[in-house]
Amino acid sequence: MSLLAKRQQPDTNGRIQHITPESAGWRFVGFDVYLLKQGQILTLESGDKELCLVLVAGLASVKTRQAEFPNIGKRQSPFERTPPYSVYVPHQDRVEVVADSDLELAVCSAPGQGHLPARLIAPEDVGVEHRGKGRNKRLVHNILPDDKPADSLLVVEVYTDEGDTSSYPSHKHDQEDSPDETYLEETYYHRFQPEQGFAMQRVYTDDRSLDECMAPYNRDVVTVPRGYHPVATIAGYDNYYLNVMAGPVRKWKFTWEKDHAWVNSDDYPANGK
User: Fold this and answer.
1) Beta bridge partners of 120
2) Which ranges of 5-153 does DSSP label H, i.e. alpha helix?
3) Is 167 left (phi over 0), alpha (psi -120 to 50) or beta?
4) In-domain check, residue 167
5) What's the domain count of the chain?
6) Which structural domain, as residue segments, surrounds residue 235?
7) pLDDT tens digits for range 228-254
8) Whole-prediction pTM value?
């Protein structure tokens, strides 16, 4: 099974990506992307899932059974590098999205069991941080981190400049009964500026029973069922990706690959060559 899901032509609802636990061969994460025209209406039933709707680009009005969030959105491109508007939708709910402009909408899903209310996640609610140093720097938008209410979902945006690496040093989160790790499935939704760009992403395990290297292009998705998963950008093209994670325990605990953990040390980048 390929770990790379290529962008598809929009279906009648504008959907260009459709990742389910069944199609990915795992248990928790679902991920869809819709490209909606201004005025188009999308209706979704959450069923036994909780949803996080991320406005990657464009404006929308969102309504659930109990709440309304009219006229949300601000950025017209993720490369404006401002935090997005998002909406959390609990399980057993119905949501209607009206595209107030052309809209790129990501729908993140995972099992929902609680009774949290639908809520708006505004840009000021998103934690912004800079990670790394040297050629390993990135900008992070923590949309739905593990210290904010949800049943399963973790959602984050990452920006990596041309020629830099991210999700690096190589790390993994695939152990269910470890004090040092949590089992989290993960998707990467890639965008590039300019749009014809691509990146290199490798997904691999210590024993190399899984070892795949892929070249995601604009609006492709890489699925990470286990193992390490670094991303390297290509000169001339900035990279954005939207990460969705979920597992049996809603905590992000990971282990660095020992060979490359030194990149976190004071020896890098001064003595890294």
Assistant:
1) 87
2) 21-24
3) left
4) yes
5) 1
6) 4-264
7) 999 999 999 999 999 999 999 999 999
8) 0.96
